[in-house]
Design goal:
By secondary structure, this protein is of the alpha+beta class. Among the domains are: about 160 residues, Mth169, Chain: A, CATH 3.30.1280; about 240 residues, Alpha-Beta Complex (Phosphoribosyl-aminoimidazole Synthetase, Chain A, domain 2), CATH 3.90.650; about 130 residues, 60s Ribosomal Protein L30, Chain: A, CATH 3.30.1330. It contains 31 helices and 40 strands. Strands 16-18-15-19-17-20-21 form a seven-stranded mixed sheet. The protein is globular and about 85 Å long.
Length: about 1000
């Protein structure tokens, strides 16, 4: 029997107000008079009427809400009703929680074919046509994962409600294992299978394997030796393991004369050389071998860090892609060593401009419309919110960046810092090894069709064949129970020998990766718990359904482990055993469906030597007349600069993310009375210790239009400089790299990649900052059609995110960005040059003058030796307590850094460029150049002598003073006033751009 409950607010509903504001911003201002929301719970179970009454009482707050049994019809006037719920098989987190609550309330378990499903009805009163309602419905739902049901008020009254819909998964095909005929296949057929997937009985294809012809011929050769065709399970498993997403082949394969590949030549080698040079002072503990990298924190603990991307799924379903990304990187932390506790989340978003309303399509007949940048932004922000906040993990650190070239595919960076004791159960906690005979145990969520081909889908450009099943929705509540059971209990009881997460490739990758530790594995696929019946064996094996970890549990400890998991509400299932057979063997219902040599599975992919070309781009320099015009009113340009998308406040994101949970926040994501977004945050993960974790990042995508080597160098310098400005010490600082590239099968793009990797080596060595972890995403391209049906390709700019993580001995010796006291002196450290290529200022001038951005050619250069000396001296100043504030200078230049310092303190400034260190030809260039290695600091007058003595030997200058009013003035190199404004005006410009989001 199916029951329907609707919970409605009895008092003004803030969610309804927000919904109405959203619709008004869509263009329906003054046309919507009232919005009413009803949260609907469809309960498909054999329950009595009294059971439903009790469930309604559980779901509704008796003070503010009322639960209505049956199909709800408001007693107030409305014109339209729009119901939105999930499609069959899509993870419904609220429904999962409600189901558990009902089971606890009624003390009875749901049967396998019973379930709970949630939806929401929006009742609208207003002057709205059917076309308007279709527009509104499309803005509220993603048809990829959600169903939309619209009725007029007449239809609701006629039908006595919206009707009951049960989105139950019904699979009508019989699970089977197919043989894939490749032994005698032609090259064309092999290529088709690799690109489009295995053929179904009806001739359709299952989706991309991302295996090119070279790989397919290697697989063909292997199975010719075996004397048989592969099963579909085997071919799918190989595709996951060999995918670019999992195996990082572009960084691993030979390129030009670099036989060992870019990763070993530039990234790993830099870390190895730095560690060797440091000897006993090496801060690294585990690098490049586990789910995260680890450095020492104190005598008892290690810090782990990993940053992932979830780009392709976030383009299709922004909420699902983002929440899956954040809970997935949380699992990377839980899966480090024997299990680290997630203590900090980080984020970084690269979006198309939110006001871009161009329509793009994946299909040639203008089918499969892409979501707008605004929809993507809203969904991604909400997804990371749900993942972090519901998991109880603070999210203080992040950034947002906008560019037209992220219109086709966004970049969604998510990271997690973990804390783990150096020893657990008497053994080093960062060491793990599955042993022959250990049970293979899957814990957490169940397996469904969500996440099919996620790894291979992410290894290709997005096009009309991009599968909806690649999208998953994470369940942070289920994962929180799993995390606590592992990290807080099972780990320190020594109940398992190894652990990893079920991420890309699902069980096919997690089990096979762990099997390398023991030498083999044997799996009983039909033992795997599923969300619903009817899944094919290959789907069971490669599904990326979320909230799952794989562990190696010794048989003698299984009962204790299983009992603990059961008590904590975490499902745990033995699905096989680790062996030393040298084989990965999978059985299903008594039939062996996969029997592969471990060596072939992991190492059988043939190298694909790559050749590069690289030509540095030459761009038009901004015309002198236009620049001269821009110079005439620098005050106006400063207001425009501080309000640019890539400089303005993104407090609307920071304030959604709980950074105070766990009680460890020291330097916050927004700082000062003016609440300015900070580049760097500091957290104290061990509450009885003064030590802190400093986190920051550097990212300069637009510099790639000129020179990717300089782009990478600037990203590294910025990540380091931001951290140093807050109090970090270079000797306790490490880096992470995330390369997000495009068209990485093209020699020119590969040449750009090689140059950036070379810069990573050069500057990591120069600063002595090792890489401890990284990730790459190589095909961030959109291939589709514009609003006229014309073919279009949009590639992201070659993007490198460098994240920095460090340890600060005393969190009290840290510095925020905001000016503190009137009368304090303003200094700039470092030199300013005419380096505006790829700058925000050139982009602004071009947009204002010609409606297009200017790029120029004078990309900033990094003098690491000079900067390193200055950073070391500044760190010494901070330790002596000489600084009142510090702000790294990067995007937007000196003027923006000064403005943020002043806005943060809500104090004015009087600045002179007369003695500015460096060589600049114009006042506006002095203000907006993005030269690296520079920091703005304020100090008390009594600290002047000590500060200047400590900084001796470096380029710096006293350029002004903090005022006791809100006037903000800058005098040019010839002493004339070039900026005259107020803090209130700057604050308005800084806060307004993204205030409505």
């Amino acid at each position: 029997m199916t029951h329907r409950l609707a919970v409605v607010s009895k008092i003004p509903d803030a969610r309804a107000t927000t919904r109405q504001q959203h619709l008004e911003n869509l263009g329906f201002r003054d046309r919507i008079y009232h919005v009413l929301l009803a949260d609907v719970y469809t309960i498909d179970a054999c329950l009595s009427g009294s059971d439903i009454v009790n469930i309604g009482a559980m779901l509704a707050n008796p003070v503010t809400e009322i639960a209505h049994r049956g199909d709800y019809i408001p007693d107030t006037f409305f014109d339209w009703a729009i119901e939105i719920g999930f499609r069959p098989g899509v993870t419904d987190n609220v429904a999962t929680t409600v189901r558990e609550g009902i089971e606890d309330l009624l003390r009875k378990q749901f049967a396998p074919d019973e379930g709970v499903y949630t939806s929401q009805v929006t009742f609208l009163d207003g002057r709205l046509s059917p076309d308007d309602i279709r527009t509104i419905a499309a803005s509220l739902a993603n048809p990829l994962i959600q169903r939309i049901h619209v009725k007029s008020s007449y239809e609701v009254e006629r039908d006595r409600g919206m009707g009951i819909i049960v989105p139950r998964v019904q699979l009508h095909t019989e699970p089977r294992v197919d043989s894939v005929a490749i032994l005698d296949a032609t090259d064309d057929n092999l290529a088709r299978i690799g690109k489009q997937g295995i053929a179904n009985a009806d001739g359709s294809r299952r989706g991309p394997l991302a295996l090119d012809l070279t790989y397919m011929k290697a697989i063909q050769a292997y199975f010719r030796v075996q004397g048989r065709n592969p099963t579909d399970v085997e071919l799918e498993a190989i595709a996951q393991t060999w995918s670019e997403h999992c195996h990082h082949t572009i960084f691993a394969d030979p390129i030009d004369d670099i036989g060992e590949g870019l990763f070993k030549r530039y990234i790993r080698r830099a870390t190895e050389e730095i560690r060797k040079a440091r000897g006993e002072t090496d801060l690294c503990v585990s690098v490049f071998t586990d789910n995260s990298g680890a450095i020492g924190f104190d005598e008892k603990h290690l810090l782990t860090h990993k940053v992932e991307t979830h780009n392709s799924p976030s383009a299709l379903d922004p909420f699902g892609g983002a929440i899956t990304g954040i809970v997935g990187v949380n699992r990377d932390t839980i899966g480090f060593g024997l299990g680290a506790k997630p203590v900090i989340n980080t984020f970084g978003f690269c979006f198309g401009k939110p006001d871009d309303e161009r329509q793009l399509y994946r299909g040639s007949e203008r089918t499969q419309p892409m979501l707008s940048p605004r929809r993507i932004m809203d969904g991604v922000v909400a997804g990371v919110n749900a993942g972090g906040n519901c998991s109880g993990i603070p999210t203080p650190q992040g950034f947002v960046y906008f560019d037209d070239d992220y219109r086709g595919k966004p970049l969604v960076f998510v990271g997690t810092v973990g804390l783990i004791p150096r020893e657990s159960a008497g053994k080093p906690s960062y060491e793990k090894k599955a042993r022959p005979g250990d049970y293979i145990v899957m814990i957490g969520g169940r397996v469904g069709k969500d996440g099919i081909h996620g790894a291979t889908f992410s290894s290709e450009a997005m096009d009309a064949g991009s599968p909806a099943t690649a999208v998953q929705i994470g369940d942070p509540i289920t994962q929180k129970k799993l995390s606590d059971a592992i990290v807080k209990e099972a780990r320190d009881l020594g109940l398992y020998t190894s652990i990893t997460d079920n991420g890309a490739g699902g069980l096919s990758c997690s089990v096979a990766e762990m099997a390398k530790e023991s030498g083999g594995c044997s799996v009983q696929l039909d033992a795997i718990p599923t969300k619903y019946p009817g899944l094919a064996p290959w789907e069971l094996w490669i599904s990326e359904s979320q909230e799952r970890m794989t562990l190696a549990v010794p048989p003698e400890k299984w009962e204790t482990f299983a009992s603990l998991m059961h008590q904590r509400g975490v499902e745990a299932t033995v699905i096989g055993a680790f062996t030393n057979s040298g084989k990965c063997v999978v059985d299903y219902c008594g039939q062996t469906i996969m029997d592969l040599d471990m060596d072939f599975l992991h190492n059988g992919l043939p190298p694909r030597p790559m050749k590069t070309t690289y030509t540095r781009s030459i761009h038009e320099e901004p015309p002198i007349p236009i620049l001269t015009s821009a110079l005439e009113n620098i005050t106006t340009s400063l207001h425009a600069m501080i309000g640019r998308l890539n400089i303005a406040s993104f407090e609307f994101i920071s304030t959604q993310y709980d950074h105070e949970v766990q009680g460890s926040s020291v330097l916050k994501p927004v700082q000062g009375r003016g609440r300015v977004n900070a580049d760097t945050t500091i957290t104290r993960p061990v509450l009885d210790s003064p030590k802190g974790v400093v986190l920051s990042q550097g990212i300069h995508p637009l510099y790639s239009a000129i020179d990717t080597y300089s782009m990478a160098a600037c990203a590294i310098d910025t990540a380091i400089r931001n951290a140093v400005a807050a109090g970090a010490d270079l000797d306790h600082l490490a880096l992470l790299d995330n390369f997000c590239w495009c068209s990485s099968n093209e020699p020119e793009r590969l040449g750009q990649l090689k140059a950036a990797a070379q810069a990573c080596y050069d500057y990591a060595i120069a600063y002595g900052t090792p890489f401890i972890s990284g990730k790459d995403s190589m095909f961030n391209d959109f291939k589709g059609f514009d609003e006229h049906g014309n073919p279009i390709k949009i590639s992201v700019p070659p993007t490198l995110l460098i994240s920095s993580i460090g340890v600060i001995d005393d969190v009290q010796k840290t510095v925020s960005l905001d000016a503190k006291v009137a009368g304090d002196l303003v200094y700039v450290i470092g030199e300013t040059h005419d380096e505006l290529g790829g700058s925000e200022y050139y982009a602004l001038v071009g947009e204002q003058a010609q409606g297009r951005r200017f790029i120029g050619n004078t990309v900033p250069r990094v003098d690491a030796a000079k900067n390193k000396r200055a950073y070391a001296a500044l760190a010494h100043c901070i330790q002596q307590g000489l600084l009142a504030s510090a702000q790294s200078i990067h995007r937007g230049g000196l003027a923006v850094a000064l403005a943020k310092t002043a806005i943060g303190g809500e104090l004015g400034m009087d600045i002179s460029l007369e003695n500015l260190p460096g060589t600049v030809s114009r006042d506006d260039f002095a203000l907006y150049a993005e030269s690296q290695g520079r920091i703005v600091v304020t100090i008390a007058p009594e600290n002047k002598a000590r500060f200047e003595e400590t900084m001796r030997g470096n380029r710096f200058a006293n350029i002004g003073v903090v005022r006791n009013d809100k006037q903000f003035t800058i005098h040019g190199r010839n002493k004339s006033t070039i900026v005259a404004t107020t803090i209130d005006s700057l604050l308005y410009a800084y806060k307004t751009t993204l205030a409505g989001y």
